[in-house]
């Protein structure tokens, strides 16, 4: 079983991935580190010309790395929670390069053909559930400014606005698997780790009985005690 966590930079995907994995006793895979992509520095090094020259290899590297990770996860077996999915790599970021004119139509067609073929591979079997984290743009930008990486903090707000609209458009048309949408303004796992209980209950509601049954006890016992106190005495 696979649970995917999707959402913009600053939405708290990694934090939720770790918390749900701990709560349910599942394996988890975090998003790969940008420094492992040799095309990233080339992409940003020389302005628009460098971006045009390196957009395709940059996105192909992300795609190959993502599917390699998925193949390893499927081979290892068990249940996993995944921080960011292959859908976002292709349908938001690679498509974004095409829409911005950084990837010519011929290259985008090649990328899209390869992505389409990879979707038929066993590694790309859809998640059992997609958990989509969302919030208004101003909330996301504020989180990036206070909690983001140095490069993210220096990025123009116009970039985040474009990315935000792409995410909203993507999830509106997403049909590969069921989606659980979470407004990130409704909880703060950093300030209140116990907030994972309510989120875990919503996830369990969508995919029970595939999750381990033993994790029911911490969440259910307080309610059982409350019900016991309401029972009439003999």
SSE string: EHEHHEHHEHHHEHH
Output the CATH class name: Alpha Beta
Helix content range:
55-70%
In total, the number of domains comes to 1
Helix count equals: 10
Mean pLDDT across all amino acids: 84
Q: In percent terms, what proportion of residues is strand?
A: 5-15%
User: What is CATH's topology name?
Assistant: Rossmann fold
Outline type: globular
Verbal overview:
The protein is 59% helix and 10% strand. The protein has 10 helices and 5 strands. The model is unreliable at 214-234 (pLDDT under 50). It has 234 residues and is of the alpha/beta class. The protein has a 5-stranded parallel sheet with strand order 2-3-1-4-5, with helices on both faces. The longest helix is centred in the first third of the chain and has 30 residues, at 47-76. The protein has helices at 13-24, 38-45, 47-76, 86-99, 105-118, 137-147, 150-153, 157-173, 196-207, 216-230; strands at residues 2-7, 27-29, 80-83, 129-134, 179-183. It has one domain (2-220): P-loop containing nucleotide triphosphate hydrolases (Rossmann fold, 3-Layer(aba) Sandwich).
């Amino acid at each position: 079983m696979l649970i995917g966590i999707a959402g913009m930079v600053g939405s708290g995907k990694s934090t939720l991935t770790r918390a749900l994995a701990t709560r349910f006793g599942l394996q988890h895979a975090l998003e790969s580190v940008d420094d492992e992509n040799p095309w990233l520095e080339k992409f940003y090094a020389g302005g628009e010309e460098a971006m045009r020259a390196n957009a395709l290899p940059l996105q192909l590297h992300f795609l190959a790395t993502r599917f390699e990770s998925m193949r390893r996860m499927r081979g290892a077996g068990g249940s996993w929670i995944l921080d960011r999915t292959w859908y976002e790599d292709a349908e938001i970021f690679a498509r974004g390069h095409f829409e911005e004119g950084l990837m010519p139509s011929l290259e985008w067609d090649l990328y899209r053909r390869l992505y389409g073929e990879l979707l038929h591979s066993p590694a790309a079997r859809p998640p059992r559930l997609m958990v989509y984290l969302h919030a208004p743009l101003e909330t996301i930008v504020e989180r990036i400014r206070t909690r983001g990486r140095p490069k993210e903090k220096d990025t123009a707000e116009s970039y985040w606005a474009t990315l935000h609209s792409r995410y909203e458009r993507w999830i509106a048309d997403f049909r590969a698997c069921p989606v659980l949408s979470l407004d990130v303004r409704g909880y703060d796992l950093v300030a209140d780790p116990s907030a994972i209980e309510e989120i875990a209950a919503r996830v369990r509601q969508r995919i029970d009985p595939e999750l381990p049954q033993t994790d029911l006890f911490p969440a259910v016992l307080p309610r059982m005690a409350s019900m016991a106190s309401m029972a009439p005495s003999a």
